[in-house]
Automatic annotation (TrEMBL), chain A:
<protein>
    <submittedName>
        <fullName>Multiple sugar transport system substrate-binding protein</fullName>
    </submittedName>
</protein>
<keyword id="KW-0762">Sugar transport</keyword>
<dbReference type="GO" id="GO:0055052">
    <property type="term" value="C:ATP-binding cassette (ABC) transporter complex, substrate-binding subunit-containing"/>
</dbReference>
<feature type="signal peptide">
    <location>
        <begin position="1"/>
        <end position="20"/>
    </location>
</feature>
<dbReference type="GO" id="GO:1901982">
    <property type="term" value="F:maltose binding"/>
</dbReference>
<keyword id="KW-0813">Transport</keyword>
<comment type="similarity">
    <text>Belongs to the bacterial solute-binding protein 1 family.</text>
</comment>
<dbReference type="InterPro" id="IPR006059">
    <property type="entry name" value="SBP"/>
</dbReference>
<dbReference type="GO" id="GO:0015768">
    <property type="term" value="P:maltose transport"/>
</dbReference>
Automatic annotation (TrEMBL), chain B:
<comment type="similarity">
    <text>Belongs to the binding-protein-dependent transport system permease family.</text>
</comment>
<dbReference type="InterPro" id="IPR000515">
    <property type="entry name" value="MetI-like"/>
</dbReference>
<keyword id="KW-1133">Transmembrane helix</keyword>
<feature type="transmembrane region" description="Helical">
    <location>
        <begin position="92"/>
        <end position="114"/>
    </location>
</feature>
<feature type="transmembrane region" description="Helical">
    <location>
        <begin position="126"/>
        <end position="146"/>
    </location>
</feature>
<dbReference type="Pfam" id="PF00528">
    <property type="entry name" value="BPD_transp_1"/>
</dbReference>
<feature type="domain" description="ABC transmembrane type-1">
    <location>
        <begin position="89"/>
        <end position="300"/>
    </location>
</feature>
<feature type="transmembrane region" description="Helical">
    <location>
        <begin position="166"/>
        <end position="183"/>
    </location>
</feature>
<keyword id="KW-0812">Transmembrane</keyword>
Length: 427, 307
């Protein structure tokens, strides 16, 4: 902290109020010039090196064919999360035409801000989204409109270190840990044998998005794909939610997972045997760890459970003047060919039907990714609901208290969080 | 009589005018950019934040016209009945109770020691001042390694190490943060006291010594009263910066800590205003914090003056 700052929160309030002041002083049409506008546009990409490479290749290919509608690609400005950088850009009117890293959880808030273009307003908008994703497209509706194009997913599975499993006396080719009981038994073996300090190490921190990598994948699996909120009511205060919460509470109370965040990459460091991750992690561990994958566990040992999609999508922003160009580029960059290039470059799964057959050659050459392609057919996502981020934060606060730190009971967590969330989604 | 009554009035008006422009109007001109800066960067946003706190407000894209109705004290009622907000204020209370007295006592004692001409005084001054100059982010990394469950501190403590460890222990997280902030900022406050100690007349110490006062009595009866004005300044600054606590709990305990044990009001303002897009309730929390800090600072000032 620096000295001296005047009274209380002045500095932060200054930032908040200044941003707000900008929002009230702008002009122009919230909908941009016109959906038919053409000309140069700017797009933002995540700061993942492989994705930036893919994006630049796609942009170069487009620019070669469209000299009058030049696309400029930039990385999303630095911030503690891309959502915060995008929120600030919407408020200031400096958002680009397209952003290729949209979390569904942030979309309802941005729609409320008037920051996103409803893709359904394009003549072929609705059909493009629904042809691409199939029946699952409904998940991405907000206020009866598609404000995001489902782009790619990273289905969450259990990734494990084969060498650690072997040392703990678990068959790395067939771990047999599909049920909660078997998973707990295997975890105890790992810790008791000393093969690793912890069996599994989800981040126990308090950020709103952490449930997507511990509770939520298992809840989707246990419930057969039920979202956290459906029909404007929390769903998890039931047997499925209790089974999942009890499972994680056992993991923490038995010391099978640490209560503090790892200061390094626990898988690479060998301090944990398992983690929940998507296919992005395969490349990360290619050199350091011999990894295996298995579906997330359920109480009954479901062979092909649903899991969390961890999708990242593409949205168009109302500050974009040349929305027709943006729409055409969006379709170009999510064509079958471009999706194939994305898969090749990043290992992340394009969100489209018939993934495994469309890119059969790739999966034949890269069998490690094939299991994720199969899993990608069975995923659920975060629901598109009012106060989405607040809902997940409330959930995380109560989960941490009961499940990670044991300060309250699982029953109190389930009923308390459900009551809070019902209040938030019903306004 | 009449002349006698008119004369002072004229003088008063003239004095007021000369005060407004100052003796050197050019000086006011030089001060003008800073005045504009204060109005634009502090006063206007602060006023706007007060306005936000009394309205149903959220950020919108430019040109999006949505109603932002006046809601009176609704936002304040919402935050005052929010258990997390109350916990955040409790947490900051714990922090201030540990941090402020430690800061005042340690910085005064260490400054007195450094002023007494001990050996290696320059090295000590630098050692105390370096943490203050170093970026919080890098120092936080060191403390994470020191105070993690497998860190150096627990290795030294062995079986005496707390379980769960320091920064994930709901009873110890905030005290650990308070110690960290005290250590980090000590150099700045020592510097203030070192400057103040220069103005305490050496003759007073010599007289006291001649009268038979020992070192503790000289410190208590000469040094402490001699630096009272600085003590008030240190108290007020420590309260204000302590109440602003954000970076340390955010980085050391990953955004709120174990079971919310290190959530602070400013951390909540960030969560509510920026992450959750509820600037109206964030502004209400900010207003409450300004009031609390103002009252504490005034109280600290008043108590010290009365002494």
């Amino acid at each position: 902290m620096k000295h001296p700052r005047l009274a209380g929160t002045a500095a932060l309030l200054t930032a908040v109020a200044l941003t707000a002041a900008c929002s009230s002083g702008g002009g122009g049409d919230a909908g941009g010039e016109s959906p038919s506008g053409t000309g140069p546009i700017t797009v933002w990409l995540s700061n993942n090196e492989q994705e930036v490479g893919w994006g630049q290749d796609v942009v170069d290919a487009w620019n070669a064919e469209h000299p009058d509608e030049e696309v400029t690609a930039q990385e999303i400005p630095a911030g503690s999360s891309s959502e915060e950088a995008i929120t600030a850009a919407i408020t200031a009117g400096t958002a680009p035409c397209l952003v290729y890293n949209i979390s569904s959880a942030a979309v309802p808030g941005w729609v409320r801000q008037g920051g996103l273009v409803n893709l359904s307003q394009f003549e072929d908008g609705t059909s493009y989204v629904e042809d691409r994703v199939g029946e699952g497209a409904q998940t991405y509706l907000t206020d009866d409109g598609y404000y995001q194009l489902p782009w790619k997913s990273n289905p969450v599975m259990v990734m494990y270190n084969k060498a650690v499993f072997e040392e703990a006396g678990i068959d790395p080719e067939n771990p047999d840990m599909a049920t909660y009981d078997d998973f707990l038994a295997g975890s105890r073996k790992i810790v008791e044998s000393g093969a690793a300090d912890s069996a599994i190490w989800p981040s126990p921190t308090n950020e709103f998005f952490q449930p997507w990598f511990d509770f939520y994948p298992l809840y989707l699996a246990e419930s057969g794909g039920t979202s956290l909120v459906e029909d404007q009511a929390a769903t998890f205060d039931d047997e499925n939610g209790k089974a999942v919460a009890d499972f994680w509470a056992s993991i923490y109370s038995e010391g099978l997972a640490p209560q503090e965040a790892s200061t390094d990459d626990a898988m690479s460091a060998g301090t944990t045997a398992m983690q929940l991750a998507g296919p992005w992690a395969i490349a990360s561990y290619a050199e350091s760890v011999d990894v295996g994958f298995m579906p997330v566990p359920t109480s009954s040992g479901e062979a092909e459970p649903v899991t969390f999609a961890d999708s990242k999508n593409v949205s168009m922003f109302t500050s974009c003047e040349n929305q027709a160009t943006a729409w055409e580029f969006l379709k170009f960059s999510t064509s079958e060919e471009s999706d194939g290039q994305l898969l090749e470059a990043t290992g992340q799964m394009p969100l489209r039907t018939d993934l495994a057959t469309t890119y059969a050659d790739y999966f034949e050459a890269n069998p490690a990714y094939e299991v994720f392609a199969a899993q990608a057919e069975r995923t659920g996502d975060v629901p598109s609901i009012p106060n989405s981020v607040e809902v997940w934060q409330a959930f995380r606060d109560d989960y941490s208290s009961a499940v990670i730190f044991g300060s309250s009971t699982v029953e109190e967590f389930l009923s308390g969080a459900a009551e809070t969330i019902n209040g938030l989604v019903q306004g | 009589m009449s002349t006698a009554t008119r004369e002072p009035r004229t003088t008063e008006v003239r004095t007021t005018r000369s005060r407004w422009w100052g003796r050197q109007p050019v000086g006011s001109l030089f001060a003008l950019p800073y005045l504009v800066f204060v109005l634009a960067i502090f006063a206007y946003p602060l006023g706007f934040a007060v306005w936000i706190a009394f309205h149903d407000y959220f950020f919108t894209a430019p040109g999006v016209d949505v109603p932002k109705p006046f809601v009176g004290l609704d936002n304040f009622a919402a935050v005052l009945t929010d258990p997390q907000v109350l916990e955040a204020f409790r947490n900051i209370g714990v922090f201030l109770v540990i941090n402020v007295p430690l800061t005042v006592v340690l910085s005064m004692v260490l400054a007195t020691a450094l002023n007494a001409g001990i050996r290696w005084a320059a090295a000590y001054r630098i050692a105390f001042y370096v943490p203050y100059l170093t970026a919080s982010v890098s120092l936080v990394g060191v403390w994470l390694l020191l105070f993690s469950s497998g860190g150096l501190v627990n290795s030294v403590l062995g079986p005496l190490a707390p379980d769960p460890s320091w920064l994930v222990n709901s009873s110890l997280a905030m005290p650990t943060i308070a110690l960290y902030v005290t250590w980090k900022q000590l150099g700045f406050y020592i510097l203030l006291y070192l400057a103040a100690l220069q103005s305490v007349p050496r003759e007073l110490h010599e007289s006291a010594a001649t009268d038979g006062a020992n070192a503790w009595q000289r410190f208590r009866n000469v040094t402490v009263p001699g630096v009272r004005a600085t003590t008030v300044l240190v108290l007020v600054l420590a309260i204000i910066t302590g109440a602003n606590l954000f970076t340390e709990p955010y980085l050391l305990t990953n955004g709120g800590g174990p079971d919310g044990a290190s959530v602070t009001p400013v951390l909540l303002i960030y969560q509510r205003g920026i992450q959750q897009q509820n600037p109206d309730t964030a502004a209400a929390i900010g207003m409450l914090l300004v009031i609390v800090v103002g009252v504490l600072s005034l109280a600290a000032n008043r108590i010290n003056r009365e002494r």
